[in-house]
Write a structure and sequence with these properties.
Distance between the termini of chain A: 40 Å
Oligomer: heterodimer
Number of helices of chain B: 1
Strand order of the largest sheet of chain A: 2-1-7-8-9
Strand content of chain B: 35-45%
Number of strands of chain B: 5
Structural class of chain B: alpha+beta
Shape of chain A: globular
């Protein structure tokens, strides 16, 4: 295979090299080359952040984080919705699940997230709470239709990718005249979280690998603020190894050239303005509000709640669920997920990582979720030592 | 989580609402009210049972265009952002 000698090539030789460039090894060479150029410009390794649990997992599974660690500092931000959902929200869900004639319908990852005393939804289920794992909010609506004597509460966790699904489920429940379906809404939004990280001043991020499927819903344009307000580049990126490499390359070219732009590196699934159908459904169903994120505190306009006119589907109102105060679970257990999610430390820098906290016996959500930083690091990168998972922000 | 699966539409079960799809030999129903018009043979990006987009099957062509735009741009010039166009209503 003819080796590409570097990024500065004439058009004709670039076109000839495209077929090789599109192979993963060819792309890896290009990414390394442009990383080195970015290093020379910045006088240090470029620091890139991804904000998507599926990217965290994909980078780990592909081995790219380790392969590029010499020329690139790739870190995970708060992109795992299971991980950023506060313990108080999960405890509220547990209260609902324990109510008579009530079923809590949830995605599977939420089942094993622990709160005080090692309690989990899985444990609550073993003690008699009706907790069911479903593939989709649509399944929760079907469950409501076939169980009219029970209240079906859908635990709506997820980002922009999932919020339209909850909205569509509510539309369907209304169309079918169901009175026993409700939603415990814990949806969060990614752009406000990115702003919060940048506004905190503790970050030295040079560019963002942006979530591909959030981008499918929002469009590339929703992330333009990175360039226009913060002067930073971003690349909306896919999830295959080739897709990750394209996203990395796009970002590194922009960093090396000093060009703050947000590009679409996942054009097969992402458009400029996203899925307008989905956006209209979400706008019709939800209002934005201040929301608490594990590890990041409260972020304005970063969460979704049902509009007042959809109150019949709001589980908190319907079941009179009292607000559960945020506790000190993490401090008590030794879990440092909050610091991991904010990028202050890497998973191996948590004193419990791999010792008191493993996928079999997790202390917090980052080790529970298959897309959590700690779980991914444990499975794919822990052999690299303290630097695995990217260095912390403050170090 | 951005977990998404690529599936191929085999039959329209309920127009504008549900399609029968296939991925890796597994048949599965997909809700399509978020994806706009779909046809048998289309490839869909599916998240938690719902199609979020009709996917451009010629991903290689799209990526090639993106690469050419990135690497061919002169320093200081804006790389041409590659896009599949605004498909969704």
């Amino acid at each position: 295979m003819r080796r590409l000698r570097g990024p500065s090539r004439g058009r004709r030789r670039q076109a000839t090299g495209m077929a090789e460039a599109l192979s993963d090894t060819g792309m890896l060479d290009l990414v390394r080359s442009w990383s080195e150029r970015a290093c020379r410009k910045l006088r240090r390794r470029p620091l890139l952040m991804e904000v998507c649990g599926t990217h965290t997992s994909a980078f780990g599974r592909s081995g790219l984080r380790g392969l590029l660690s010499g020329v690139l500092d790739l870190r995970s931000g708060p992109g795992c919705p299971v991980c950023v959902t506060p313990a108080s929200a999960i405890r509220t869900a547990a209260v609902a699940a324990g109510m008579p004639r009530t079923v809590l319908a949830t995605f599977g990852d939420m089942l094993r997230v622990p709160w005080r005393g090692g309690r989990t939804l899985e444990r609550e289920r073993s003690l008699g709470a009706d907790v069911r794992v479903l593939r989709s909010p649509a399944d929760a609506v079907d469950l409501a239709a076939t169980n009219p004597q029970k209240e079906i509460v859908f635990f709506a966790v997820g980002f922009e990718t999932t919020a339209p699904l909850t909205a569509a489920a509510i539309v369907d429940a209304r169309r079918r005249g169901l009175r026993n379906f409700s939603v415990l809404c814990q949806h969060r939004l990614i752009p406000p979280a990115i702003r919060a990280i940048l506004d905190s001043g503790s970050s030295r991020v040079d560019g963002f690998i942006l979530p591909g499927h959030v981008g499918t819903v929002t469009g590339r344009a929703a992330f333009s603020f990175l360039a226009t307000e913060y002067g930073l580049p971003g690349a909306v990126t896919g999830f295959s190894t080739g897709g990750l490499l394209i996203g990395l390359l796009a970002l590194l070219v922009l960093i090396a050239r000093g060009e703050p732009q947000v590009v679409n590196a996942y054009p097969e699934a992402v458009t400029e303005n996203g899925n307008r159908l989905a956006a209209r459904l979400v706008d019709a169903a939800f209002d934005r509000l201040r929301a608490r994120w594990r590890g990041l505190g409260t972020i304005p306009e970063s969460g979704l709640e049902l509009k007042p006119e959809l109150g019949q589907f709001d589980a908190r109102a319907k079941l009179a669920l009292a607000p559960v105060p945020d506790g000190e679970e993490e401090k008590e257990s030794g879990c440092m997920c909050g610091d991991v999610l904010a990028g202050r430390i890497t998973p191996p820098q948590c004193r419990a990582f791999g010792v008191g906290c493993t996928p079999v016996r997790p202390l917090g959500p980052c080790m529970v979720s298959t897309e959590g930083s700690c779980s991914v690091c444990y499975r794919y990168d822990r052999h690299q030592g303290p630097g695995a998972g990217g260095a912390g922000h403050g170090r | 989580m951005c977990l998404g699966t690529l599936v191929r539409v085999t039959r329209i079960a309920v127009p504008g609402f549900r399609a029968e799809c296939e991925a890796h030999g597994v048949k599965l129903p997909v809700w399509t009210q978020l994806a706009g018009p779909v046809r048998p043979g289309d490839y869909l990006l599916v998240h938690a049972g719902y199609a979020l987009a009709v996917v451009d099957p010629d991903a290689a062509r799209s990526r090639r265009e993106l690469l050419e735009g990135l690497l061919a741009a002169a320093p200081g010039a804006e790389p041409r952002p590659a896009t599949a166009g605004d498909r969704h209503g």
